């Protein structure tokens, strides 16, 4: 069997992928109330680079809340 045959057979295998559920203290981030976090360390960030320790993809506290609302509406529509 050639390596190209091996590549074709990969689709036939049952591959279990790990699905990452974004959680904070066992709460899904789409359900997380940022106001419930007592210490908001991201508010002390002085640079855009510093805030990426807390928010990904260019989000900050305001834009994350907006995206959270969008995702909550989207998930309700799927149920």
TrEMBL record:
Where it sits in the cell: the answer is: Nucleus
Which GO annotations describe the biological process of this protein?
A: mRNA processing
| Domain Pre-mRNA polyadenylation factor Fip1 intervals | 31-73
| Species this protein is from | Spironucleus salmonicida
Transferase listed as a keyword:
no
Q: Which UniProt keywords apply?
A: mRNA processing, Nucleus
The protein's name in its UniProt record: Fip1 motif-containing protein
Per the record, the similarity remark reads: Belongs to the FIP1 family.
Per the record, its GO cellular-component terms are:
nucleus
